Amino acid sequence: MINKTQERTKITFEISGKMDAVSSPVLESEIKGLSHIIKELIFDLGKVEFISSIGLRNVLLAFKTMKARNGKFSILNIPPQVKEIFEMSGFMNTFQRDEKLIIIEKIADEKSVFYSLVGVLDEETSINFEQKLFDLKPKKLESITFDCEKLTSITDEGCCALHNAQTFLGSSMTLLNTKKEVTDKVAASEIAKMLPDPQK
Asked: How far apart (Å, rounded) are the C-alpha atoms in residues 107 and 109?
């Protein structure tokens, strides 16, 4: 089942149930039938119970559709069982090859948010990264957590983006599963003063 919510050039698909061969034709039709004015597509997977290889292809179709429009594609509220399939299938690697930074958002509750970062956080990608976090200001979050296991590198500009977002939001910030390169870069930046010790 798909519930659609549109705000000007942004549309959100709240998908529930199973993303498989049965539901695939409907979702594919919705993606291919998107109005030309749509520049941002969001998949909210919070109510998805299962995703098959056909469901994964629909996600990839959505991603490539928005990329062809120079638009944005985001995945929200990805359940653990779906995230596991993404990772086991190597699907996140497909995203990483096609785009420098993918942000998967999972809302834990009204006061906290969890992000998985895939790719590179640098001068180019930090612009959209900061904007996504700044959009969270009205939520008055108490904590933000970043899973950096799939973050391959971060530049000074990326560290600055983290610092700016943390200062702007006034929320506690935690980095998990950071690689050595990321850990070293963060440790040498201003953001290190505002974070717990990064975990490797």
From this structure: 6
